[in-house]
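Quick look at the format.
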Amino acid sequence: MSNPPSLAGKTSSVDQPVGSCSILEVSFNILNCTVGSGILALAFAIKESGFGLGIILSMLVAVLCWLSLYILIVTGQRIGVYKYAMLCEATMGALGFYLLNGIIFFQTAGACITYMIVIGDTIPIMLDILGFQVSRKWVIFISSLLFILPLLFYRSIGSLARVSIVSVMLLPPILFAVAVRGFEYAPDHKRTYNFVGDNVFPAIGVMAFAMLSAQTAFLNFTTLKTPTRKAWGQATGVAVSLSWVISFVFAIIGFFSFGDDVQPNIFNSFPPTDGLINFGRFLLGLSMFLTFPQAFYPARAAIHKILGHEDNFLDPTDKEHYYTTIGLFIPILACGVFIADLGLLYQLIGGFCSTFLAYIIPGLCYFLVFWGGKGSRQPSELQGRGDGDNEEEEAEQGEDRYDDDEDSLEDDEHAMLPEDEEVDRLMKKKLCNNNNSKSDLAQEERAEPLDQSHVNIYGSTIRTSPSIASSSSSSSDLDGKKTRRRKRYEGHKTETWLDVAAGMLLVIGLFVMVISTTLTLKKMLGFA
């Protein structure tokens, strides 16, 4: 496999935070991403997994969702990379780069298709009530061009913060419509309250699909006014908590209302003559229009990275941005027009792509960085830029761009001391150890004269003072910087709870992905 596209002949643009969004605005952006079309299938997922186990699994999925968002940023901070694909390249090389972008593309493009399917399930009913007989295909085609496409030309997802707030505000009346009218139909349907259902693992895939937002983690983190671990933890905590409450209250009401007859799109369980439900359908369709960009932006970013238009230092040109936007929108629109089976699409995308993105890759990257010795490995675009000191300084600036002094992982006790203070401390320690042996000390001073440009202490090369260091060669300075940087990486300590959390993500993700994808493919191929 070839390496990711290089930067030769291109103008660099260092990835800087937009810095325009508050914690609450970022929370709404994440919430808008998680509460999408997948919410309509959660009642179906509870039926498939069993009522009791379904509720427990929904809580587990929410916790794992928050952990994946948090661990991704912690891992990115550790090596100074703030784009998901660049993180995978830094830890797994070119294979990780292309694998991650491919999965993100299929996950988010699949989500966009589900939004269009939902629009096709809702808006035609509303138009029919108004006296307009328009086919599902034409509704999706025309409405997508008019209401979705104009929202796709922004470059930053932060520009959609207000759109996201409007979309989230539409959810309470949608939930209210289902809650009020759903119970009216409950007597006509049978409910089975088994603790364990017949299709548990594909149901977990549906839940993972509904709660997924890992693909937008770095996009949202870099829009924070204060991009720190503490602020990110608060933003994601609020978003995931609200997402779980909204999603699974909706799901439980749907299950109580239709029981074993609930459909993957819960609104399809209602008759088309219910006025309040039709109002909910209208709001749901509007919400899908506003939510579509949250899935489209990561899909477009994945294409840009695969084509070499975007990396940790490079942004797409205007021409690349517009061409890719239109070129991606057209096939998604075509799939939305001709595909209508939501259930299997949810299970397939959720079981494979969602679990891979949300659980497996964040856990794997964490262990490769903190335990696998990949902490000092930078993506290819961080290498070969500049000569000598500039290369090291640019890399170190990249690492520290979003450092949070209060919350980030700290170095060893003395790793952050200035160089001269560090040398003084070590020299004093050596003098104290040899206080009772002046002859030994004199011998040591003769063997290691203090006027040399560098003193070798415990195997580390450290400058003694600015005046003395000025006589050293540029190659020695570079070696010293590399040694300090390597020491900084090796000095980091992990946090036990993060180690456990990353292990949970990795093990649960692998287990669910293999079983869920296998069962769904068997069903699609007619073997189950």
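Next, a different chain entirely:
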Amino acid sequence: MTTQNNETNQKAQQAGQESSSFKRVRIFDTTLRDGEQAPGATLHPEQKIVIAKQLAMLGVDVIEPGFPISSPGDFMAVQRISQEIHGVEICGFARSVKEDIDSAIRATEAAERRRLHMFLSSSDIHLDFQLRKSRQQVIDIARSMVAYAKQFVERIEFSPMDATRTGDEFLFEIIEAAIEEGATIINIPDTVGYAMPEEYGAMFTRVMNHVRGGKQVEYSAHCHNDLGLAVANSLAAIRAGVTQVEVTVNGVGERAGNCSLEELVMAIETRKGALGVETGIRTEHIYATSQMVSRAMSFPIAFNKPIVGRNAFQHEAGIHQDGLLKNRNTYEIMDPEKLGVPRSMIILGKHSGRHAIKHRVSQFGVELTSEQMESLYVQFKELADRQKVVQDHQLLELIGHTVNEVLEPYTLVQAQVLTGTEGHRMSSCIIKDNRLGKELVCSGTGDGAVEALVAGIKQALPLDVQFTDLELYSLSSGEQANGEAIVTVSVEGNHYRGVSVHQDVLMAVAQAFMAACNQAIREHQINEAAQDAFSSEDVEITIP
């Protein structure tokens, strides 16, 4: 036993030594400032506060909550986040203008730790056409505004905007001026996403080596994604010695967006050994944070978005499915469950093979003979050829046909909704309890058609089901377009998801809700049966 303990302690010490050998890269989150500048992404102050709390839970090092001078609402949001969020550095954002600086200083004065982030254009195209000032005038502004801000806050981050299109000579000069006046962090932004990775990394190296005082300050990277290189450029900056990277959740931001938090963090986490760095991000909160930002901004996440996209950890090809069922590492380099991503590894479609279908059938607790399995496979392929994906409730229906039994606990037989321009919407539903063979007629009301439908269906169900999320997608164009509904429900803290496709969007929602509820009910019935079996066992008690 002692030998085992010693071995365990040695392994723990080795793990600690390995961890300490990695340099820490600070994650500066600007979702609530630069991310919100994306057209249509505007957030209410209360939404910003909720997201800021989630970002703190995620483990970001710095939060840039907004642009205080831009509106009373933004000022209030930054002020409240400074007051309410602890354990995270809060950054006030400002142009190199006294009024902006004053506003940012006031908004962040209650923060436990704070900094001021001020920016000033540096490229000739910005100076000539936007600022309409000479280089010397810009240098003078940089000096005077950094010196002014230094009276109020110690940590000052200075950004020469459009740095990657600024020549070295002037870039060195303006950075030197900012450092001489008290800037402690130099951010070199690729404002228009123009740089190539090798160029961007080399730029930091040149600044560190040639600017007076350049080795006494911290460096930050801020990359935009216009050429799809924001993450690659940020990694190049890290290799050059940058210790902070500015990111946004889901990569939201101006134009094509910013460096994606989840992509950068997981690139570092997955290739930590190659990069020699680590972050303090709690990866298990990544997916929830991504979903929260997507919903708050009403920005859907692309299906093929790395890390958090719907297809990021799903597989339809039979060869991939076979490999994954044998060993997940065959086709996945990350564990989605460690990111908080709901596990739905196998997607059944026309490319799926027998192995994947047999695996899913076994998950339903159904045993099929080889003849029944072959019959099911033929039916499955016929259905899969007609539609893109075969959902669980459809597979259960096919299995039911094969074994001549209804497997779903409840079936939505009919649903109607009375809607209009005014007043409550009303629904009428017929739901069949397949165990008892009885049909139940239910009705519901709500401010919207979906609310009325859900209220009606809930009346027939034996569990307290909470409707937690709805995603709607158009799968084609024109008047006969199909809509796909993805509904998530929760029961006693557990989440279940149903998917349905229908030309009538409301029917798609109703069927998806019913499918999710049936998942919950099936699991509840299985647990009850297991508990009953356990309770009915004869337990022999021996009294010594």
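The chain has a mean pLDDT of 89.

See the schema section for token definitions.
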